[in-house]
Write a structure and sequence with these properties.
By secondary structure, the protein is α+β, with helices and mostly antiparallel strands. The chain has a single domain (2-161), classed as Alpha-D-Glucose-1,6-Bisphosphate, Chain A, domain 4 (2-Layer Sandwich). The chain is built from four helices and seven strands, in the order H-E-H-H-E-E-E-E-E-E-H. Strands 1-7-6-5-4-3-2 form a seven-stranded antiparallel β-sheet. Helix 2 packs across helix 4 (139-161). The chain is elongated, with a radius of gyration of 19 Å. The model has no long low-confidence stretch (mean pLDDT 90).
């Protein structure tokens, strides 16, 4: 019995350690020569995502605080459905979504729009937490987010010319 308690205690400490040490962040930025309102309109237009976002395709839900949005997420050619909750929405400034499996792997994703001279700085970042994080490499997510930023800029600029 004592051995079982020791094993359970060691496992509990190990899992708690992994949980608190399991943190990673992906951070990308791009400057777009357009006002935040024009970029925001594209970010919240779920029908346009296939035109610019190589990783996420909204399947259901709306961009409103407290709402759940389900996406088809494609990374490295593999697709799965993932849901997130809109936990913060400040028009023309920030969209914040949270999802995942608490304790295992969660994501806290932000789109931040900051007016700068000549346009808008768009920052897309995501914080990960959980016991699975130390065993996961988010490099492909960063690559996909950088591509999404680039394609977002291209679409916004094309819409400005029309």
């Amino acid at each position: 019995m004592k051995l079982i308690l020791i094993i359970v205690g060691v496992l509990a400490v190990a899992l708690l350690s992994l949980y608190f040490l399991g943190r990673k962040t992906v951070n990308t930025q791009i400057d777009i020569a357009a006002p935040p309102e024009e970029i925001w309109a594209v970010l919240l237009d779920a029908k346009r995502y296939p035109e610019w976002n190589p990783i996420l395709e909204p399947l259901s839900g709306t961009y409103k605080a407290g709402e759940t949005i389900t996406y088809r997420m494609t990374i490295d050619g593999e697709s799965s459905e993932v849901s997130s909750t809109v936990v913060g929405l400040v028009p023309n400034k920030e969209l914040n979504q949270f999802g995942g499996v608490v304790g295992i792997l969660t994501f806290d994703h932000h789109w931040v729009l900051e007016p700068i001279e000549g346009g808008t700085r768009v920052t897309q970042y995501e914080n990960y937490r959980g016991i699975a994080v130390p065993f996961w490499n988010p490099a492909s997510v960063k690559d996909a987010y950088e591509e999404a930023n680039r394609q977002l800029a291209e679409l916004v600029m094309a819409l400005r010319q029309n």
